[in-house]
Write a structure and sequence with these properties.
Elements: H1 8-21, E1 25-26, H2 27-34, H3 38-50, E2 54-57, E3 60-63, H4 72-77, H5 82-93, E4 100-104, H6 108-120, E5 124-128, H7 131-138, E6 143-147, E7 151-153, E8 158-160, H8 162-169, E9 173-179, E10 182-184, E11 188-191, H9 194-205, E12 207-213, E13 225-228, E14 235-238, H10 243-251, E15 255-258
Parallel strand pairs: 4-5, 4-9, 5-6, 9-12, 12-14, 14-15
Antiparallel strand pairs: 1-3, 2-3, 7-8, 10-11, 11-13
Helix pairs in contact: 5-6, 6-7, 8-9
Amino acid sequence: MDVPERNADERRALLLELLARQQFASLDEMQLATGASLPTLRRDLSTLEREGLLKRVRGGAAPAAVASTLDEAFDLRRRRNAREKGAIAVAAADLVKNRSSILLNDGSTTLALAEELAARAPSLWIATNGLNIGERLASVGSFEVIVIGGALRGSSFGTSGMLATTAIAQLTVDVTFIGCDGADLERGVRFNSLQDAEIAAAMARAARRVVVLADSSKLGQSAIAGAAGWSEVDILITDACDGEWRDHLGGEGVEVVIAKPPVGR
């Protein structure tokens, strides 16, 4: 299948997303992910290496160690479908009631939601496994913010493992918001990392209501690890969804909310 031509920011965001999920990516994997020619890919890798966002190794590239939870690597990754993620964040924030408790997994869409909640500043109890999400929320005086500990991946700023899932299992919250790598029509919410799937599954079990945040590029993407079937999801918020998805999810009892980016933004 041909991959559409992408601009430099999109290509570099895809490269960093790929390296956030695995410790090494070959040139073939990176070309498949970006659709770039080999000379273009090498120029992108050189740029990202100069910026300290990855390191080139024999046959491909690996994640670079990062020094700040607000570093440029995550900022670049989150630019992908940023307008759609922003609209999804607004729709998700509309569901959050004052004095409620919520869980957020790590990711660029849940970070967009965190920023929208910070702008509104209701009284909330929020727990997250995303260090950058916790950092963004910590300055809001009306929030009580809990950062869930565990093994930390510097490329994604998310914690995982037994420490994290054990802590989540002790919680009962009003709403869990889950960003994902893919959403399969039959099999539900999916991730490219087993650790991420375990975190999302634990968060779903801990909530009275589960809301999945997935821009339309994620729909139909069957990533390797399942976190929750549609029967465990209450609401899907996306920017576009066809009739087949609406009918199937309606049969599973999932409400579909379409969040449209503002015109001209």
